[in-house]
Amino acid sequence: MGVIIGLLVIGVVMVYSSSYVWSAYKFSDSLYYVKRQLLFAGTGVIAMLLIMNVPYTTWKKYAKLILLVCFCLLFLVLIPGIGMIRGGAQSWIGIGAFSIQPSEFMKLGLIIFLASHLAKYQKYITSFKKGFLPSILLIFTAFGLIMLQPDLGTGMVLVLTCMVMVFTAGARLSHFFGLGALGLVGFIGLIASAPYRISRITAFLNPWEDPLGDGFQIIQSLYAIGPGGLLGLGFGNSLQKYFYLPEPQTDFIFAILGEELGFIGGTVVIILFLLLFWRGIKISLEAPDSFARLLALGIVSMLAIQAMINISVVIGLIPVTGITLPFLSYGGSSLTLILCSVGILLNISKYTKI
Fold it and tell me: What is the DSSP letter of 30?
């Protein structure tokens, strides 16, 4: 709980610091983004506190219904007039002044259902037809609907998280090798089918070839992190948030944190994430039954994979994908669902010996 609150406080503070210039320019209100982030964080914390007192077995009872609702939302977002397009992706459903992102709900919904399904049919998991294939078909059906938006970043997190769960449940390595070969072909096909994905790959390999185009984001991100040095330029003193790094309060918030708080600030955040992952894995190992173990592992894997992808993008280790940094980045659906997820994790921890 302490680690979660610590990351959340850092996130709110950095959303304010990274966004007030853009907020003042776009909305004539320098507090526009941080006020909304406080609302999202407050709602999420209340939900987390309520959910951590709901027995985790309750989610097993409603796993099918939760998954059905998530699939319905994924279908709805694809309907013109219902789904909202932002940044070239039709990934949001508008509700008044706010909007929700169904793919975020699907990540948690699929983790809950898969934990229930794998725990119930774990004895069949070594069988390709009875155990492995049904789980894989379900995972890639959800992935396919997310890719129709398209949202490769969220789809990657969902698939990798679920693969960790299936592997931990006892699936054979030989099945994964065959799936990996097929997945590599499909991944190459996805990249080749969309010119902007190819341009992201080439920009990753040599961003300086097109510094004002496809390489712009990663170059500006590195320009933020580099001058930060050991101690940073000081809180609020970022230069890259002055219209150099596009919307720095979202996917590239770690770059602004590195610029203002330096290597030490970035290291503190990474250590907090590592502590969260370590505690989450211990909760999973000490959980009282298979459902709880797989559910806890799924939640902590989702957070770990998402954080690693985001930070890797920001420091130039992998191509740019549109994905938020858990607890820190601005975003309503993402932050609220993450806090709901850790609420479940905290409830499972009540039944462990740690």
Answer: T
